[in-house]
Amino acid sequence: MQDAYRAGALARWAVELRATGEFVGWAGLKLNHEPVNGRTDFVDLGYRLLEPHWGQGYGTEAGRAWLAQGFGALALPLVASYAEATHGASRRILEKVWLEFINLFDTADGRPHAWYEAPNPARAR
Q1: Per-residue pLDDT at 12 exceeds 60
Q2: Phi and psi dihedrals of 79, rounded to 5?
Q3: How much is the average pLDDT of 7-16?
Q4: pLDDT at 125
Q5: Residue 109 has pLDDT above 90, yes or no
Q6: Which residues pair with residue 49 across a beta bridge?
Q7: What is the layout of strands, in order, in the sheet containing 12-16?
Q8: CA-CA distance, 109 to 11, in Å (whole number)?
Q9: Of the chain's two ends, which shows fewer C-beta atoms within 10 Å, N or C?
């Protein structure tokens, strides 16, 4: 990530509690060049929180903020994300931040995942 920051590229950022500065995980947008679900060079919304902070709305808050940044200041045409098909909590976050379920697919290691996308609403006008 340090190289991405230095290059001014999209990268994940630390998620901290506003009141205390405690690190609770990471979230952000990343340009993914590796093939996933038949796609390459897509912008991926990702997050990972430490387990003690699950279920408190931080994933949804971070996801909405990064999606707003992607569609606002960055003017991205599309943001995608994916989660393990059986990980209901991660999938609910993607749905809460207004990404639409597109399809199920298997990753290179054979694990089933769910693919989500959201087009930039400003470009649809």
Answers
A1: yes
A2: -125, 135
A3: 79
A4: 58
A5: yes
A6: 25
A7: 12-16, 23-32, 42-49, 78-84, 112-119, 100-106
A8: 24
A9: C
SS3 string, the chain, reads CHHHHHHCCCCEEEEECCCCCCEEEEEEEEEECCCECCECCEEEEEEEECHHHCCCCHHHHHHHHHHHHHHCCCCCCEEEEEEECCCHHHHHHHHHCCCEEEEEEECCCCCEEEEEEEECHHHHC
Is residue 79 a contact partner of residue 99, using CB atoms and an 8 Å limit?
Answer: yes
- Does residue 10 contact residue 29 with C-beta atoms inside 8 Å? yes
Pick from 69, 56, 89: which is nearest to 28 by CA?
69
Q: Let me know how long the chain is.
A: 125
